[in-house]
User: Fold DNA-binding transcriptional regulator, FrmR family from Zhihengliuella salsuginis.
Amino acid sequence: METRTDKTHPHGYSADKDALLKRLRRIEGQVRGIARMVEEDTYCIDVLTQVSAINAAMHKVSLNLVEDHIGHCVVGAAEQSQATGDPSIVEDKVKEASAAISRLLR
Amino acid sequence: METRTDKTHPHGYSADKDALLKRLRRIEGQVRGIARMVEEDTYCIDVLTQVSAINAAMHKVSLNLVEDHIGHCVVGAAEQSQATGDPSIVEDKVKEASAAISRLLR
Amino acid sequence: METRTDKTHPHGYSADKDALLKRLRRIEGQVRGIARMVEEDTYCIDVLTQVSAINAAMHKVSLNLVEDHIGHCVVGAAEQSQATGDPSIVEDKVKEASAAISRLLR
Amino acid sequence: METRTDKTHPHGYSADKDALLKRLRRIEGQVRGIARMVEEDTYCIDVLTQVSAINAAMHKVSLNLVEDHIGHCVVGAAEQSQATGDPSIVEDKVKEASAAISRLLR
Assistant:
């Protein structure tokens, strides 16, 4: 008999995990690059251009996570709500998702 | 005989419609207020403060719409996908939602 | 003898005033358009697309005002600081400008 | 005898350089922390909360750089424009600053 092993792929981003990790490594390098630019007194506008590049990269990371969250956690909760007849399961997930999106929009 | 009345409340924001409309009327007035400030040569920093207030109000409107969309359209699609066994129904809605969120984050 | 009439064009955006006012009128119409969409139960994603369009338009308005502020108020203060030997005049303007930019970035 | 060594501190952020570098090191660590969270399949909402924290920290870095740029490069250019009677020196800097701010606002 097989049980669902939610523990190993709990949040849906596992499929794209490698891509996401690669992206985060690159961002880490970009932040280090900015520190180097500041150390070397690089012209501030050039530093700001790099800051914008990191913001755009972080934006893609957020989007990735939000899409995975909606596509897995919210959708999974919708199915559970339907199976159990308890709407609060999905309602809680929707609230949580929109709170996270609100923090991203600041 | 009962017909599904999806047409009258199709997107879920109908419940909060009055609150949303009130909020939009207020934003409309704020934009008009900024035009007046510009006409009267109000100090630019004070105009910018009003611009930030409108941005924050628009942010709440977006959040409202996003939460309603996830809570109604995405969740509804998840139920349809489960009922029909066709995962593409909800997958399309999730993609659409995250594209809209991406535009909001810019 | 002529005196400078800073009162009538104090903040520099007066030159582009017409363009700025036209832009604000258009945004006002866009906000009204969104209210209409909500009233007519337009599909939420389409409403969100319009919200993003307004955000982009407000972004241009902010940028306009920021550029004018820096180009006129900050630069004017720099000249006054140089003329009077009092650096605090320009320092205050720079602080004020960056506080306004911070509110825009949220 | 003292000479002004503008070359070594060209962009004004040198004074706050240590604080800025410390902030960047912390952000680098936060990005690495997110990679670790993803590796360990941390709940996506918790990862998103960390993403928002990095965005807020990057926001402070940008603001720092923008304030320094306006306070040093733009103000310095305003003084040069006044000394030389050539307004284009400061006009170019203002354009450059507002282009950088536009990229930050996205």
